[in-house]
Amino acid sequence: MVKLAVVDHGAGNLVSIRQGLEEVGAEVEVVTTPDFGDADGVVLPGVGATAATMERLSAAGFVEPLRALTRPLLGVCVGMQVLFDTSAEDGAECLGIISGTVERLRDAPRLPHMGWNELRIVRPDPLLAGLGDQPLFYFVHSYAPLPLDPSVVVATASHGTPLVAAVRQRNVWGAQFHPERSGPAGLRLLANFTKEVQRAA
Predict the structure, then answer these.
(1) Closest by alpha carbon to 76, among 153, 27, 12?
(2) Is there a contact between 80 and 175 (Cβ–Cβ < 8 Å)?
(3) Are 57 and 9 in contact (CB under 8 A)?
(4) What digits encode the pLDDT tens for the residues 121-164?
(5) CA Rg, the chain, in Å?
(6) Domain definitions of the chain by residue range
């Protein structure tokens, strides 16, 4: 069975993420210290602001272990945003695992962007396997990443101008939406991540 560590830094949909991962067959441990033990992969959830998230990650000692992680990693919502270098939301220095910045959504009809939205898959990736061309996922955010290397983008969505919805760099994935709140499509994505972790183990 695949073992996944879910990072508890004080702000994330931990119950929903854990239930979703367990439903797709993973063994889940919620960790409050940066000891990932024998976990095969790591999930970094997050809600709220990037600076506050980075402060909590730093206070709990997660920053350097996450930067040095070689196991598969999935960042969700703000957990995706902190994978990048900096955020315009509050000037936060983030993890710098993927080069780029996090910027406020431009030309948005309203903020936050909240609700269901279609993804446009821009390059095939195992994380999105079996989801069709325009799967629906649930979003709650006002900022999104702008990767320095556009080839890391695997899916976009539109809310005003197009926004980056999912990324992948080697064994690091990010989802700007909430798979744990996105019904069958979200469960399929979590199952896909679990399979990729198993493949890498």
Answers:
(1) 12
(2) yes
(3) yes
(4) 999 999 999 999 899 999 999 999 999 999 999 999 999 889 99
(5) 15
(6) 3-200
Give the pTM: 0.96
- Show which residues are catalytic: 77, 178, 180
65, amino acid identity: P
Residue 134, sorted as left (phi over 0), alpha (psi -120 to 50) or beta, turns out to be: beta
The CATH classification of domain 3-200, taken from the options 2.40.110.10, 3.90.1800.10, 3.20.20.70, 3.40.50.880 = 3.40.50.880
Chain centroid offset of residue 129 CA: 17
- DSSP secondary structure, 36-54, as one string: -TT-SEEEE---S-HHHHH
Number of residues assigned to the chain: 201
Those residues with Cβ within 8 angstroms of residue 179's Cβ, 6 or more apart along the chain or in another chain: 20, 76, 137, 185, 186, 187, 189, 190
Q: Measured in whole angstroms, how far is the alpha carbon of residue 157 from the centre of its chain?
A: 15
Tokens representing 40 are: 């095969």
- pLDDT per residue as tens digits for the range 87-120: 999 888 999 999 999 999 988 788 888 899 999 9
DSSP code per residue over 123-135: S--GGGTTS-SS-
